[in-house]
Amino acid sequence: MGSPASTPQEIAREAVRLLAARRLPPTPDNFQAAYHEVAGTRPLQPFPLAQLRQIGQALPERTPAQLRFKTLFNRAVTRHSWDDLEKLLVQHLGAASSPPPPSATPPATAQPPDSAEPAPHADEKAASIPISPDIAEPAARVIDLTLPLVAADDARLREMGEELVRYLRLEQHHAPTLRRMLADYAFRLSFGVDEQLGVREALLGLLRQVLEHIDAISPDNPWLRQQLQALVQAAQPPLSQRRLEDLQARLKDVIVKQAEAREQTVRAQELMRQTLATFLERLAQTAVSTGQYQAKFEACAQALERAQSLADMAPVVQDAIQTARAFATDTQRVVAELTELRDRADRAEAEVQRLRRELDQMAELVTHDLLTGVLNRKGLENAIDRETHRAERTGTRVCIALLDVDDFKRLNDTLGHLAGDAALKHLADVARRSLRPQDTVGRYGGEEFIIVLPDTTPDEAAAVVQRLQRDLSAHLFLHGEQPVLITFSAGVTELRPGEPVANAIARADQAMYRAKRAGKNRVMQA
Ligand SMILES: Nc1nc2c(ncn2[C@@H]2O[C@H](COP(=O)(O)OP(=O)(O)OP(=O)(O)O)[C@@H](O)[C@H]2O)c(=O)[nH]1
């Protein structure tokens, strides 16, 4: 190749030669490529007019700033001006990274990695948008209320939440800023929530393990086993405050019963050990001393047989009398010791009785019914008390429903008392599954149950109880293979503020009797 081409004509000539040498047809594209190759310049890419027009059309024009940006963009595209487009984009992105206006300046928050939201354009920045207080205030309240829960272990999240709440309560809001703050908060929150769920799961797992271990060390007490199994079940998510309260009450029952079982075992063992030890000791002593006296009396008898005269007999008789005296003394000692042993046994027995009375009093603290596993009367009293106070605090209403199984005597008479027991247990199980998490069921006595329904109107309470009736018809009690329909009549009433609970129960009872008289298997309100 000769000296490099420098004028356009020379370059063009050289380009034609190159095409001929490469046997390429001299099309405009081939010629253009060869020309740039010879000249050592960059081939110009065609201006992507169609694509840029498409982008220009899709640009938003909701705000004056957006409209202005769109106009300038389309103008640059029409002019095929890369320079204008470049300037426009640089200016726009520069504005996007500057802070928002002071009237609604948000505090600096971390930008989430996926935050692709552009910040406002210079013109847009000036326009703060008032968000209706109807929306901003409830949103602020929601965040405010949930903060103690979600940010308990995350100071940064709490800070971000508080900033967001303050910002939402301003009169003017800058929409992109608010959007960014919300995105930041949601981003951080997502980690916090995952973490908290993990912690809760782990704690529940630990609790279940502890319960299973307690279960393993109380193998010979069926009641404890039943309670512990109920506890393991109750410690499954989802948890609620009421479920935790129930867990707590059950755990207390288990502790009381376990203390009872332990004390009784220890006392009984101690008494048994003492009595056995003393008895064996005395037995051995009596055997030894009786053997000794027997040998002495034997010797006296033989000496008497050998005696030839009264004079020979006198010392033998003397000896025998002394032996008899010693025997009597020894026997008295043994009798005294055995009496002391009996007194000790009596005192131990009295102690056991005292302990039993004490434990009976403790058993009154037990809050769950042994047969059905639901609350007993005492547990119900506590639950009603708790719900009444909660209702007073929150300004809500509480209802109770009193349920009485229909024709239960006939069921007992035809299927037996054990089947009756199993039927009550079935009803309690269905009720527990059917009721809402906030509702509480307890056995009021015999075949009567009470359901406590917080935050509920009488109409709603009646509907809940009717749903339970349907569930009971759908889940029949099985006596062996035989399906048995159990129904109940119920009275529903509201717990009026300040009234004694007994009054409300009496009202529910009257309503329940009206339901019985009206044909059973129905719910009446009082
Ligand atoms: N198996 C069993 N029976 C119980 C228990 N508690 C109470 N009962 C029986 O329940 C029956 C209740 O009978 P009633 O009060 O005459 O009532 P009913 O037969 O259900 O008739 P109505 O209430 O009019 O529908 C009695 O026979 C009690 O002995 C229990 O824990 N287990």
UniProtKB/TrEMBL annotation:
<protein>
    <recommendedName>
        <fullName>diguanylate cyclase</fullName>
        <ecNumber>2.7.7.65</ecNumber>
    </recommendedName>
</protein>
<dbReference type="InterPro" id="IPR050469">
    <property type="entry name" value="Diguanylate_Cyclase"/>
</dbReference>
<feature type="compositionally biased region" description="Low complexity">
    <location>
        <begin position="106"/>
        <end position="116"/>
    </location>
</feature>
<dbReference type="InterPro" id="IPR000160">
    <property type="entry name" value="GGDEF_dom"/>
</dbReference>
<keyword id="KW-0548">Nucleotidyltransferase</keyword>
<keyword id="KW-0175">Coiled coil</keyword>
<dbReference type="Pfam" id="PF00990">
    <property type="entry name" value="GGDEF"/>
</dbReference>
<feature type="region of interest" description="Disordered">
    <location>
        <begin position="94"/>
        <end position="125"/>
    </location>
</feature>
<keyword id="KW-0808">Transferase</keyword>
<feature type="coiled-coil region">
    <location>
        <begin position="331"/>
        <end position="365"/>
    </location>
</feature>
<dbReference type="InterPro" id="IPR043128">
    <property type="entry name" value="Rev_trsase/Diguanyl_cyclase"/>
</dbReference>
<dbReference type="InterPro" id="IPR029787">
    <property type="entry name" value="Nucleotide_cyclase"/>
</dbReference>
<feature type="domain" description="GGDEF">
    <location>
        <begin position="396"/>
        <end position="526"/>
    </location>
</feature>
<dbReference type="GO" id="GO:0052621">
    <property type="term" value="F:diguanylate cyclase activity"/>
</dbReference>
